[in-house]
Description:
The chain contains one helix and seven strands; from the N terminus they run E-E-H-E-E-E-E-E.
Amino acid sequence: MATTYRLRPINLEHESWMRSKVRGQFVRVLANDRDQARRRTAAAAATAEVFVPEPPIEGYYRWVRQVSPWEIDDVTSCEEDPSGPPMPAEHIVCEDGNELPARW
């Protein structure tokens, strides 16, 4: 059964924040576990900087996924949050009330 999780920034100085559309505020997300909550939030808040090319090997670039701040334990906390209004299954909800689409 899905649970509501609250992810809160704890290290706003970390370089990974450049890869997130959401900064300086907590988000709430519906997920089956903490890992899924982190993955769903990371995907919903991703910027274009999430994938960067590695140096070419034999003339071909390989796109490498960079880690989101929402996936790093030392950068964001992730705890169950049963308080508050019911969560929409298809969105993460930011502290300021904005919603971002999130996939399961």
